[in-house]
Amino acid sequence: MIDAARQENVILFCLPPHTTHRLQPCDVGAFSPLKRAWEAQCSTYLQTNGVPLQARDVVVEYMTARSTALKKETIQQAWRKSGIGMDDSQTYPLCDSSIFTKADFAPSVP
Question: Strand 93-95 to strand 84-86: parallel, antiparallel, or no bridges (unpaired)?
């Protein structure tokens, strides 16, 4: 699998244990703007059409919301916020371990 990833120019990035809650860039900073844009798009559709979103229009409306929310800058900021940046060559991901505390590495307690 590693060879296949390399052949396709996929960079595998292993996450340290007990840190995924801090290191998931989409959860940290991209899905929230998308959720807000989707809710706004659905409201606009309802106001414009006088009916709730129809199944035949979901893809078009979603793509509009997506293009509003998922901009390059938003995604890059989400990665930075989660402590994952790029090296100086902008080729390889780097993890900024200074964003973590000892509590971040502790096992979760039920």
Answer: antiparallel
